[in-house]
């Protein structure tokens, strides 16, 4: 499965929860979820990485469906584990429990925000969040080397990104979206995986304070 479903309600203070959202929850959001888990473990180690919970769901999620085969292949090529995944339909409790919601497209972002739950300030497209994160000075975030928790640093990053959103010049809509490769040949899935991987790299670095080795 994409991850255990915790009790609905605000995320606990010592953990930070990321929710990736696409349409069917069998291609883009599973790739983002599993790549993020892989990168967190590589940079922080399994114990510290457990401070950040990473899940995914789809606005028209194929409940219980396996990951698309090409998506699983691409994840394996990055060294990430595609095993045990099961698709989920996006529900209110997923949004309520998330500290950060990252969507594939602007339409997905709008659908999440329309669900309410004060989601507007913590919901971005993945590439929009990457663009915002690149402008944030890491020195302004809590330093994990000085005793701050990863969760505290991550929450501060989301607040900073939300504050910046109205001040940066908007990008063309297509620049902030990841296209759906469903039904396309594996080459398109590889392009999608590369796009997501490069968008995630600065995000995971900013969230954790740890760069890729």
Care to give the gist of this entry?
The chain is an alpha/beta fold.
> Portion of residues in helices?
40-55%
Computed structural class: alpha/beta
Strand content: 5-15%
Low-confidence stretches at least 5 residues in length (pLDDT < 50)? 1-12
Number of helical segments with 4 or more residues: 7
Task: Write down how many β-strands occur, each being a DSSP E stretch of 2 or more residues.
Answer: 4
Mean pLDDT: 91
First CA to last CA: what distance? 28 Å
Radius of gyration equals: 16 Å
Q: Which H/E pattern describes the elements?
A: EHEHHEHEHHH
Label the overall shape: globular
The strand line-up of the biggest sheet is 2-1-3-4
Largest sheet: 4 strands, parallel
Blueprint of the fold:
Layout: E1 16-22, H1 28-49, E2 52-58, H2 69-77, H3 92-97, E3 100-103, H4 106-114, E4 123-125, H5 126-133, H6 150-164, H7 186-208
Parallel strand pairs: 1-2, 1-3, 3-4
Helix pairs in contact: 1-2, 1-7, 2-7, 5-7
Descriptive account of the structure:
The protein has 213 residues and is of the alpha/beta class. α2 packs across α7. The relative contact order is 0.19. The N terminus is likely disordered.
List keywords for this structure.
four-stranded parallel beta sheet, 4 strands, globular, 213 residues, alpha/beta
């Amino acid at each position: 499965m994409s991850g255990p479903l915790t009790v609905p309600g605000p995320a606990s203070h010592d953990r930070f929860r990321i929710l990736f959202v696409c349409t069917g929850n069998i291609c883009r959001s599973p790739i983002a979820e599993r790549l993020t888990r892989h990168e967190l473990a590589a940079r922080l180690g399994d114990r510290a990485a457990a401070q950040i919970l990473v899940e995914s769901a789809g606005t028209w999620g194929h409940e219980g469906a396996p990951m698309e085969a090409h998506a699983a292949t691409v994840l394996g090529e990055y060294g990430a584990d595609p095993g045990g995944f099961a698709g989920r339909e996006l529900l209110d409790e997923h949004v309520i429990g998330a500290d950060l919601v990252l969507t594939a497209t602007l339409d997905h972002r709008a659908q999440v925000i329309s669900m309410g739950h004060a989601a507007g300030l913590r919901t971005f497209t993945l590439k929009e969040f990457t663009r915002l994160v690149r402008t944030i000075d890491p020195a302004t975030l809590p330093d994990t080397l000085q005793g701050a928790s990863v969760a505290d640093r991550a929450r501060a990053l989301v607040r900073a990104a939300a504050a910046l959103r109205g001040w940066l010049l908007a990008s063309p809509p297509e620049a902030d979206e990841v296209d759906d490769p469903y039904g396309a040949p594996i080459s398109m899935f590889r392009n999608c995986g590369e796009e997501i991987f490069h968008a995630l790299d600065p995000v995971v670095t900013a969230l954790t304070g740890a760069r890729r080795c």
